Amino acid sequence: MSVTPHPQHTALSLAASGVPVLPLRRGKVPFGNCPACADNACDGRPNMKAPGPCRCPGVCHAWAAAATDPAVIVSPPWAAAWRRAVCVGYHPGGAGLTVVDLDDADAIAWARTALPATRTVPTTRGQHWIYRGAMASRNAVRPGVDIKSTMSYARYLGPGTGTMTALPDAVRALAVKAPAPARPLAHAATRPAGARDGECRHRTPAYLNRGIAMAEQRITEASSAVHATVYRTFLAVLSTHGRCGCLTDTHVARLFTAAQSKGETPRHCADAWTNALNRLGL
User: Fold this and answer.
1) What contacts 198, CB < 8 A, 6 or more positions away?
2) Can you list the positions of beta strands (E) in 52-200?
3) Is the pTM of this model over 0.70?
4) Which residues neighbour 204 within 8 Å (Cβ) at sequence distance 6 or greater?
5) Mean of the pLDDT values across residues 55-77?
6) CB neighbours of residue 7 within 10 Å
7) Contact yes or no for 62/33 (Cβ under 8 A)
């Protein structure tokens, strides 16, 4: 007869493989915010107005409190939360993953025709399709389909079956918001005839490449306040190029690599990038 592991034991196993975990109570929801963070007392981190995870002493803020440090997972106040937990949650984006949450049979049928096969985990009513790669999270991208990655949590339901594949553009496209109507600008240049989506629409490609190189240099030359420097640099790049469709995964990877060379984790990079996107309404 098999014995179901205690949630804390499962959490420790996941954390050892680099997956940030958090306890979930009945209803598959995180434990309530700690008193220290009531009414945004911890400088706005419940709304992630600044980059980085929650630094309050309690188990709160859902995905932002997810941890991989076993000392955190087994110590107060986490220990008490695990005793009451009914299951384990995890932060997919913090592990460099994206979960496509398919909530019913119709959503699963759609995914089988629209998305490449990957690791699949059965859920109560549908399936989780898990891809390698992080992106912005967004709910209700189509009927019965949510995307859970950065700034989101998912319930751990087992290792699943199948080979995990790279996050495809088809999934990234689901989370792209419809652009707001453009307002004419006095200094806006006419888009060159024949310009492609991969090119910057208001500058030359050389301008973009020079901007990315300057951003890399700004990050790698930071001698202090690396977190803040990375966030401000991401914000500056997105302010200039985030709305014109010229940034590619290669450009983003260059920025993330520069940040990681200064000690930033993939999770911090993903969080800072998402925060910058949200700040600009992208």
Assistant:
1) 245, 246, 248
2) 87-90, 97-102, 119-122, 127-132, 138-142, 145-148, 154-155
3) no
4) none
5) 76
6) 21
7) no
Alpha helices in the chain (DSSP H): 7-16, 70-74, 78-84, 105-114, 169-174, 205-220, 226-241, 249-261, 266-280
Q: Which two tokens stand for residue 84?
A: 């009451």
Token couple for 104:
């019913």
Phi, psi of 33 (to 5 degrees): -60, 145
Contact status, residue 62 vs residue 22, Cβ threshold 8 Å: yes
Among 36-45, 153-162, 262-271, which is the least confidently predicted range? 36-45
Cα–Cα distance for residue pair 217/238, rounded to 1 Å = 16
Tokens standing for 210? 């020079």
Residue pair 19/29 in contact (Cβ under 8 Å)? The answer is no
φ, ψ for residue 97 (rounded to 5)? Answer: -125, 160
